[in-house]
Amino acid sequence: MAEQQQSSTLHDVAQNTGNFIQKAGENVVQTSHKYHDAYSTIDKIMDTFWQRLPYLCIAIVVFFIFYLLSKLFKAFVVRALSNRSYTRQNLVLVLNRVGSTLIVFFGFLIALVIAIPGFTPGQLMSALGVGSVAIGFAFKDIFQNLLSGILILLSEPFRIGDAIVCNGLEGTVEDIQIRATFLRSYDGRRLVIPNATVYTSSITVVTAYTQRRCDFNVGIGYDDDVQKAKDIVLKILNENRSVLSQPAFSVNVTALADSSITLNVRWWIDTTEASILGSTSEIQELVVIAFANHSISIPYPITEQIARPTEQPALEAPKV
User: Fold this and answer.
1) Is-above-0.70 flag for pTM?
2) Among 77, 261, 298, 307, which one is least packed by beta carbons within 10 Å?
3) Which pLDDT score, from 0 to 100, does residue 149 have?
């Protein structure tokens, strides 16, 4: 009996081992089939890649050629138009940026046609048409600034190098890009203003004309000779080299203040030869010195306080 039970146990162990080996073999076969499918897919992808590799290389070369053409186009525009006196400065920027962008985009389309089999520009246009509404809402501000930038460059209300004031921001125009206009403030900061804001806002072009007017007010005393003071200032303006004779300079009484007679001094300068701050400072210094030499006062507000003695009550005689 013991021998039969032992042989039965050995038979069960052998049978279980065989079943385990069979299942393991089936799993190995299934796994090998899966890996074989993956390897087959990878092989197909690699075969397709190697087949399309020459076309990809050609597409990259074509795109690079169009990129070089855009650079040559920029150089040609700058060389052909920048040295002509009648050419507007911003027109060169428009041709450079818009023209070169169109050349690069055209080269990109040709590269896609070469690299992707069955691709046509019409498919791209139709895809853009389907998503135009969503793109329009998502990029509304970008497109608005883009269109405003092109209109600013074409209409040319100001140029690079001009000093402008826009929405309380003042500075010198450094660059006019498609998205924004860059200013350099007088204290050395960079100001970036969206083109849509620049296009729809009122702008003061400070350096639009080379002739600028300077003025300041000065007060003289009521005891001084007004005509003498005016003649002194007019002589200073007439002898100063930075003051233009046309438009004519002037000195006028503009106010009768509490403690002085206010004279307004106005003159014009050429900003290419003198600065507004420098000329104003120089004329004011000369006026102060001349008034002091001719005994003409420049009064300042004076407040007089008059103190009256208060009446003291009479002393009563002591009662006896």
Assistant:
1) no
2) 307
3) 83
